From TrEMBL:
Acidic residues composition-biased segments: 30-40
Keywords: Phosphoprotein, Plasmid
Record-annotated HD-GYP domain positions: 324-528
InterPro entries membership: CheY-like_superfamily, Cyclic_di-GMP/3'3'-cGAMP_PDE, DUF3369, HD/PDEase_dom, HD_GYP_dom, Sig_transdc_resp-reg_receiver
Pfam families referenced in this protein's UniProt entry, alphabetically: DUF3369 (PF11849), HD_5 (PF13487)
Name of the protein in question: DUF3369 domain-containing protein
Single GO MF descriptor: phosphoric diester hydrolase activity
Stretches assigned to the Response regulatory domain: 50-174
Length: 528
């Protein structure tokens, strides 16, 4: 483009050559911003490349638009934005984060305004994707070697050397480079989202939560997704939807056909507005993940398929976890039954105890108490784990365990051994697993006879040194034991029991646990 873009002549004939070159350039048809703005729907389907012209010379803007006005790249048109100062350019860069290339003058409101803008874009905005072509009419003001070395620019052009062809070539090269970088960045971000989704799903411990989480993460994985469906084989010819995010009113026939076919042969299928991929576990029926919306780019497909691969592994792991969990539950019930044979009152007592312990834990959780210990797992586990609180009684002689009336001092010493015996049995059984029914049961068995002031047994622990599960079960255990008849005592009136809980709060019991339990009883209408 030689130079409608320069600031002025220098008396050596350059002006005439520039005017001749500019007259050649003007043979290209011009594109106006108004014309480009007309087809909004078309832009959404095929968005234009954005090129920002930053120059204080209005003629430079006009000539650039004339030269590149009909330009397109990869079947997408080019749209130009104009800024006449570095300050205007900064505003446009914020307003249009998808700008692909900048044709940037050096000397504008100051001699180095363009160079300062480069630093602002790269360092303050952190924008490493946009391609910056520096154009200067005064090369001596910003020598090429120094500028290339000191500033993160992608091309350097003296306006006097820019013919129409060279400007076109530089623009295409910039757009192609931006496209490659943007593709890499989208892929990187997509992989991050896939791995984050996989980590999130790995932490879910129920199949319904897992499937709901999968469709939610799948819907958020790609731009333009309107619905995500997870389908399994149906009873009839069509698929059965097992989880969804944004279920459409009607599924197009071709989408249903692709889901059914994918479930049959395990192959992914992609249409213009939908994609179907398959999750195949080791010993479960396949599931098809269907995304509706789009249009989807080629780079989207491997991301969705990677997510499905990770999800299939996650489903297999979840099934193994469920089997392990079921085995632990069966073990808990077996040990609980063993204790029942030794102590006739244990059966109903442990059921009530489990309900009270769970209710106390939930109330404490709602109060945000013990935030570093209480979570959903704790609340879900303590009820069943509390069944094991007296499992150590299997090691106590029947003559002591079933003696009517009070035990003497020697007999009481033997009886107190059940706490340590129960903890030992359960710790051996849990195999080092710290987050399971057996491990929590071991804590409860060992500590539910400890007292908050340190006067309990078997270790004389005090305050927060007593495991929280033990402190909770201690309150629930005493409450239920006193309310019901035992071979050695009659049942107490509930008012007497509540008076004792209040009186022993801070000595026998953790006062925070007592307060939570009283709130539970009040909500339950237990006559608090």
């Amino acid at each position: 483009m030689a130079d409608g873009c320069d600031r002025g002549g220098n008396g050596d004939g350059t002006d005439e050559r520039r005017r001749e070159s500019a007259s050649d350039v003007l043979e290209f048809a011009a594109e106006t911003e108004d014309a480009a703005d007309g087809d909004g729907d078309g832009w959404r389907r095929n968005p234009p490349w954005l090129i920002l012209i930053v120059d204080d010379d209005h003629e430079v803007h006009a000539i650039t638009r004339v030269v590149l006005g009909e330009m397109s790249f990869e079947e997408r048109p080019v749209r130009f934005l104009s800024a006449y100062t570095a300050r205007q350019a900064r505003s446009l860069l914020v307003e249009h984060p998808g700008i692909a290339a900048i044709l940037l003058d050096v000397v504008m409101e100051t001699d180095d305004a363009g160079l300062k803008l480069v630093r602002h874009i790269r360092e303050e905005m952190g924008n490493r994707q946009v391609r910056i072509i520096l154009r200067t009419g005064q090369p001596g003001q910003a020598p090429e070697r120094q500028v290339i070395a000191a500033y993160d620019i992608n091309d350097y052009k003296a306006k006097s050397e820019l013919t129409a062809q060279k400007l076109y070539t530089a623009a295409v090269a910039a757009l192609r480079s931006y496209q490659h970088i943007a593709t890499i960045e989208r892929g990187r971000q997509g992989l991050e989202r896939v791995m984050e989704a996989a980590d999130h799903l790995a932490g879910l411990r129920s199949r319904s939560q897992f499937l709901a989480g999968l469709v939610g993460r799948a819907a958020a994985l790609l731009t333009g997704v309107q619905s995500a469906l997870l389908c399994g084989p149906g009873e009839g010819d069509g698929p059965a939807i097992v989880a969804e995010a944004g279920l459409p009113a009607d599924l197009p026939t071709e989408v249903v056909a692709d889901i059914v076919a994918a479930l049959g042969d395990g192959q992914a299928r992609w249409g213009s507005r939908h994609g179907v991929t398959v999750l195949r576990g080791r010993d479960v029926a396949p599931l098809a993940l269907c995304l509706l919306g789009g249009p989807f780019a080629e780079g989207d497909r491997p991301l969705v398929e990677l997510l499905c691969t990770k999800a299939a592994v996650g489903l297999d792991n979840l099934r193994l976890y469920e089997r392990l969990n079921q085995a632990q539950i069966a073990t808990v019930h077996a040990l609980g039954k063993l204790a029942e044979y030794k102590d006739e009152v244990t059966g109903d007592h442990v059921k009530r105890l489990g309900r009270w312990a769970t209710a106390i834990a939930r109330e404490l959780y709602a109060r945000n108490a013990f935030a570093d210990e209480l979570d959903d797992w704790f609340c879900d586990t303590i009820g069943l784990a509390s069944v094991l609180h007296d499992v150590g009684k299997v090691g106590i002689p029947d003559a002591i365990l079933r003696k009517p009336g009070r035990l003497d001092e020697a007999e009481m010493a033997v009886m107190r051994d059940h706490a340590a015996i129960g903890g030992s049995i359960l710790r051996d059984a849990c195999g080092g697993d710290r987050r399971g029914y057996l491990s929590m049961g071991a804590e409860i068995a060992e500590s539910h006879h400890e007292k908050f002031d340190g006067s309990g047994y078997p270790r004389g622990l005090a305050g927060d040194a007593i495991p929280l599960a033990g402190r909770i079960v201690a309150v629930a255990d005493v409450f239920d034991a006193l309310l019901h008849r035992r071979p050695y005592k009659k049942a107490w009136d509930i008012a007497e029991v509540l008076d004792l809980l209040r009186a022993e709060s801070g000595s026998h019991f953790d006062p925070r646990v007592v307060d939570a339990f009283l709130a539970v009883l009040e909500c339950d209408g237990a006559g608090v």
